[in-house]
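Posted in: Protein Modeling Q&A

I'm a second-year student putting together a small comparison for a lab meeting, and my supervisor asked me to include a predicted structure for Netrin receptor UNC5. I've never done this before, so apologies if this is the wrong subforum. The sequence is pasted below exactly as I got it from our records. If anyone can share the structure token output, I'd also love a short note on what stands out.
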Amino acid sequence: MAVGPGAAVALSVCPVATALPGSELWAVLPQTRLSPLALSWWRRFGSRDSSDYSEAEVLPDSFPSAPAEPLPEFLLEPEDAFIVKNRPVQLRCRASPATQIYFKCNGEWVNQNDHITRESLDQITGLVVREVDISVSRTQVEELFGLEDYWCQCVAWSSAGTTKSNRAYVRIAYLRKNFEQEPLGREVRLEQEVLLQCRPPEGMPAAEVDWLKNEDVIDPSQDSNFLITIDHDLIIKQARLLDTANYTCVARNVVAKRRSSTATLIVYVSGGWSSWTEWSQCNAQCGRGWQRRTRSCTNPAPLNGGAFCEGPPFQRVTCTTLCPVDGGWTEWAKWSACGTECTHWRSRECQAPPPMNGGKHCSGSMMESKNCTEGLCTRTLAPGMGVAVYAGLVVALLLCVILALCVGGLAYRRRRRHLHGDITDSSSALTTAFHPGNYKPPRQDNPHPLHPSAPPDLTATAGAFRGPLFSLQHGVNDSPHKIPMTTSPLLDPLPSLKIKVYNSSTLSSLELPADMVSGDGEILSLKSVGTVGREREYHSHTLSREPGLSTSATLGNLGGRLTIPNTGVSLLVPPGTIPQGKFYEMYLIINKWDKTTLPSEGSQTVLSPVVSCGPSGMLLNRPVVLTLPHCAQLDTPTPDWTLTLKTQTHQGAWEEVLTVGEETLSSPCYLQLEEECCHVLMEQLGTYGLVGQSCPPQPACKRLQLALFAPRAPCLSLDYSLRIYCIHDTPHALKEVLDLERSLGGVLLEDPKPLLFKDSYHNLRLSIHDIPHTHWRSKLLAKYQEIPFYHIWSGSQRPLHCTFSLERGSLAVSQLTCKICVRQVEGEGQIFQLHTDIQETLPPHSPLPSGGTCLPSSQVGPYAFRLPDSIRQKICASLDAPSARGCDWRLLARSLGFDRYLNYFATKPSPTGVLLDLWEACHQGDADLVSLATALEEMGKSEVLVVMTTDGDC
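Accepted answer (user: helix_wrangler)
Welcome! Here is the predicted structure, written out as tokens:
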């Protein structure tokens, strides 16, 4: 008989009860209501042991010793489940043999109506198989308060008893949004171990974690360099270049999937030096010169921001080459005796000096002869020779008469043609073509005549000009096409004719071969608009072309480079900047501090010399590169400078051109910043200067130099002075002080010492110590001298210096030993240890400034550029077009370090060409193609490398 909840147990179950001990029977009986007869039977016999029953012999012999069927056995037990959102879960169990199966949840029976029961028969055993399902909703689970989880289990009955299944726990699934810990981006060196940590959000069930590398799932079984720990951290055993990527931690469970923030891992490579090249040949063909060898930072090359190699990329040693000596003639020897031919001779030798070391041999004859009787030598003529001589004289006389008649006739015909005006003279045509009203001599008050000599008188030399001529009498709005005034074959162009064209309204001078004049009439029609004329008038009063502070050159379409030696200032004019067929006299000038207003305002400070380049107003087809040295300290971990490029208007006011780091598409320039100089890409020439201001919270620092000078000649008085200059750490500033002291008769005692001057409003303090008081006395009353902070920071007074006046005990005292301390109050300082003999004539000590250059002041055409034009064109053709993989000019900009603001290059017709122009300017002192070849090799541009190897000079 089946037993269920609420059913009474009949007496027929007594045989089953007698077969089990009391404790076991209670374990299998459900908690149900029993009949009074069964309860009395249980009270009487249930607590006894089976041995008691056998001894008391209360069991009848007719009861069987074993149940009719076995206990229920679960074929399927309920499993743990999670409620996702509001969807209920199904719990199922199956048992055999089973007369009833019910679920019990959290200790309470589930209502019979909530069960779904299915019954079948096992074909093998013939036992009844019963399967039951129930549904558990989110509300049921949430109604359970407390720390315990919601659980359910099955209870199955058979005639042999009951069996309970395992408990199945039902939980509400969820996944929080925020990660407990997200991975952080890092920069690591090559082959370094990397740990990226990830703690997924709290969830039920616990979230599973995957790592993504550039959105691809990382499988440690496929790449053994990756390891994912139990705590979900990602370990990269040895960082490789290909491990530079974006890494994301992804957590997911049955509810949702969460992504962490992306961590960028950059694997950098610090540079290493290659082997030294062989020593070059001595650069001097004669006398003392130098040899050079180089090495490149390509073993390996720095990558992804890795440190550049420390140390110089080149070495230089002196060498001496034997100079060629050209031969020279000795004095003539005495004349020999008069010979039978009525001549005597004399000789000389090429021995004063003899040609040596490849020198030229003497030019001319070694022997000389002449008649030694002054024509009085008598010779006997052979028979018939006299007649021949006289006949020859007669013929010569007749020829002279005929030639004179021809010349007279030609002169007469030419005079008649001029008088009657039948044919226009070519000189007249030339005079009409070059009308004197179109040409004015340069202004006498112009302090910068590009060609100080007066313009040539074109009418006086018109007869020498040949070739098609063009009228210059036209206005600004006239057609640019010129009409030749004559095509006479008498006006064929001369092979080496040069024409100089002067125009009072421009600063240009042209020297062109005649074939260029005949082929391009635009050259002779260069005129300036009013703005250019005003610019010339303005600069005529403000710019002074002093030796050592200016340079100029006539440049055309091939471009060139202007450099002011030993100042670090240069102007690169790339090929194609000036329109085809036009030439300009371009200049580069460093303005003297006492003749110009400074661009600084308020707390700003001047960091570079103020430089003018021009002529301004000229049309440029592509940007030029102006290089300016600066004295800003930039190697600090945090940016503490706000750097601004300023330009001066024609009225003398200063305007901001751009601020570094704040460029927009409307910015007219691009500024590439290096530790000691900056390179400005611009399309408008003018006057420029770099200024800076501290960027809070860190105070900025300027690099200064301290230079100690003293009189060079022996001092005849008892007074002796030491001068210490505080100047900007730029080549131009040091050169200016050296020139000043040279004019004063001073000499540099020691190499200049660097000093970092902080924007802290503290003065610069100078003091002298350890003077030998037995022989010397300081005439300074105070203990120290100070230069005000604002004078140094603003740069309004140059050059700044302090003088220490000393007095010696007698003229016999010559040794001076002392110590001079220079420091900023609450800042850095330097100490000069001086030990000198003032009676010695000190040699001039003028070290070449660190930013100086040995390049000539001007280079015109292809010689001004390190990169040949053929290679440049192939690189531009390969990289200008955008690439889907990014292997184009943008990658080249990143490789060369020019990627601070790529939008500037993107607006140019050839971005690669502008990048190469900037590379030329940055490497003008040590321009070799190794750095460029390295960048192209990393980009995979093998076809360009082949061209550079064959055509270039790597």
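A couple of things worth pointing out for your meeting: The chain has a mean pLDDT of 76. The CA atoms of residues 432 and 543 lie 38 Å apart.
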